[in-house]
Specification:
The protein has 275 residues and is mainly alpha-helical. The chain folds into two domains: 208 residues, no CATH class; 55 residues. It contains ten helices and two strands. Strands 1-2 form a two-stranded antiparallel ribbon. Helix 5 packs parallel to helix 7. The longest helix is centred in the middle third of the chain and has 39 residues.
């Protein structure tokens, strides 16, 4: 079955722009499925252009239903899945016997986990933390470059990776994925991303939580804060973060966490324990 000819660059840009809108129709039942279908729609329309043909029309409906399945993945890495799915749909449209259509959804399901792990660790756990950590520090000093720098640092990696992910996925992403999965390379990449993300969070705790103790003993000659700093700098911010993390893991609701922070902070300040 012939498909409408479209340039490679146009296809890649379609995957690029539509992957950015993949969460616009997020829902609790199937999450990003409508956004993924939106990204696939131009490809499916090109594969089955003649809706007056009952065979093409039915196969087009089947393809639309196929991409209504559950989907959830990092938007930037979803461009890779969009490109790979589009190439598989084109192959199936050209020769239905060459490919089992169930393989397309199986491929999407197999990619969601690892690509989400890499994408969330890199973009949300690393790039965003670094970008807005630098931005907040500049903004606290009254610099307009704070929010600008945060957006630029966040945008550049996202734009580059989304575009190249779409291109690699469409031009033969399954080959690259096999190489990445061979030799536990995928596990190594996710492990490194996790380490970098934790380092960034640790830096944020040390720089942005400014809690100290004014407590002293022996008429001011023994300063508790100096003792704590000699053991480990920024011990109090780390301890407070640990307490909040413990409460979150215990299932304490956000409203109660805010109340604990506000009331606890005021009370500890009045008692002279924290400053």
């Amino acid at each position: 079955m012939a498909t409408k000819d479209v340039s490679l660059n146009k296809k890649i840009w379609q995957f690029f722009w539509r992957s950015w809108a993949i969460q616009d129709s997020w829902n609790y039942e199937r999450q990003m499925n409508l956004g993924f279908l939106y990204g696939m729609a131009p490809t499916l329309d090109r594969c089955y252009p003649d809706e007056s043909d009952p065979v093409q029309l039915e196969r087009k409906k089947d393809a639309y239903r196929r991409h209504m399945a559950f989907y959830n993945c990092t938007p930037q890495t979803s461009a890779f899945v969009l490109g790979l799915s589009a190439s598989m749909e084109e192959e199936y449209a050209e020769d239905p016997k060459s490919l089992n259509p169930d393989t397309i959804n199986a491929m999407k399901t197999a990619l969601m986990g690892p690509l989400s792990g890499i994408g969330d660790s890199f973009f949300q756990g690393t790039i965003r933390v670094i970008a807005f950590g630098l931005g907040v520090q500049l903004a606290q000093q009254g610099s307009l470059m704070g929010p600008i720098l945060a957006m630029v640092i966040s945008a550049i990696p996202s734009i580059l990776i989304t575009w190249f992910a779409a291109k690699i996925g469409y031009q033969g992403g399954h080959q690259y994925l096999e190489k990445l999965q061979s030799g536990n390379m995928m596990d190594k990449v996710m492990y490194v991303c996790g380490i970098v993300g934790l380092m960034s969070v640790g830096g944020m705790i040390a720089t942005l939580i400014g809690s100290t103790t004014p407590a002293t003993f022996s008429d001011g000659t023994l300063v508790i804060q100096d003792i704590l700093d000699s053991i480990m700098p920024n011990m109090i911010p780390l301890a407070l973060t640990g307490v909040m993390y413990w409460l979150v893991k215990k299932g304490v609701k956000t409203g109660w966490l805010l109340i604990i922070c506000i009331v606890g902070g005021i009370l500890l300040n009045v008692l002279g324990i924290l400053a």
